[in-house]
Design a protein that fits this description.
Strands 1, 2, 3, 4, 5, 6, 7, 8, 9 and 10 form a ten-stranded mixed β-sheet that branches. Strand 2 and strand 3 form a beta hairpin. The chain is α+β, with helices and mostly antiparallel strands. It is globular. It folds into two domains: about 90 residues, Pseudouridine synthase I, catalytic domain, N-terminal subdomain (Alpha-Beta Plaits), CATH 3.30.70; about 140 residues, Alpha-Beta Plaits (2-Layer Sandwich). The protein starts with a strand and ends with a strand. Helix 1 crosses helix 2 and helix 3 crosses helix 4. The chain is built from five helices and ten strands; from the N terminus they run βαββαβββαβββααβ.
Length: about 240
């Protein structure tokens, strides 16, 4: 299933002991439709609290008592309005929402002026910045890098290598949008990249500081994490 959600009121994608989660809401809706089944939904990736998705993907094994379209309609009828199942399709037994993915794409949205209308979906830019420096930072990202410096210290995986396919900043109509596509992402990686690139663009760090962080070399610069609400999981590629 392809899923979009407003992450504002969620404690992230993954089921937790306390707090509402996207996985938890969808699993509950599935349990209403399939009360006799053990419900375990597998997502393509875990989004953090406050992060949104336009194209999250998940899979589950279920009896075929409903067509994909009927299942989509039944799920949406049992979900709150901040989660929507956009598409449901049958797949073979070898498909895995996470491990079959070849790439993920994220966007980070910033606005130059605070707006109460978009406050849950954008981050207001607080400083004067040099857009050229932002783009120079983004140009350094494509390729294979060890992103140890740009992930949460308690990230579960030991392998921090990620292959970035593309990364860019776009400026239009009072907005700044960062787009990045890679084979995989580490916890908080996009938010750390955005926060640190902004420090370079406003003159707090040099481009050399960013290069050293990317190479995991010694530097006095420390990474900064951008707020969650500007981040969107845009698409998962298979």
């Amino acid at each position: 299933m392809t899923i979009q959600y407003d992450g504002s009121d969620f404690h992230g994608w993954q089921m937790q002991a306390k707090g509402r989660t996207v996985q938890g809401d969808i699993e509950y809706a599935l349990s209403v439709i399939y009360p006799e089944e053990k419900i375990t939904l597998i997502g393509a990736g875990r989004t953090d609290a406050g992060v949104h998705a336009l194209g999250q993907v998940a899979h589950i094994k279920l009896p075929s008592k409903l067509t994909p379209k009927e299942l989509q309609q039944a799920l949406n009828g049992n979900l709150q309005q901040d989660v929507r199942i956009d598409f449901v399709e049958d797949s073979d037994n070898h498909f895995h929402a996470r491990f079959s993915a070849s790439a993920r794409e994220y966007e980070y949205h910033m606005v130059k002026y605070f707006s109460p209308i978009t406050r849950n979906y954008t981050t207001p830019l607080k400083w004067e910045i040099d857009s050229k420096l932002l783009k120079e930072c983004a140009d350094l990202l494509p390729g294979k890098h060890d992103f140890t410096s740009f992930c949460k210290a308690t990230t579960e995986t030991d392998l921090k290598l990620c292959s970035v396919h593309s990364a860019s900043w776009e400026e239009s109509e009072g907005m700044l949008i960062f787009r990045i596509r890679a084979n995989r992402f580490l916890q908080h990686m996009v938010r750390y990249l955005v926060g640190t690139m902004l420090e370079v663009s406003r003159g707090q760090y040099s481009l050399t500081d960013f290069i050293n962080l990317l190479a995991n070399e010694k530097t006095e610069a420390v990474i900064l994490r951008a707020p969650a609400q500007g981040l969107f999981l845009k698409k998962v590629y298979y």
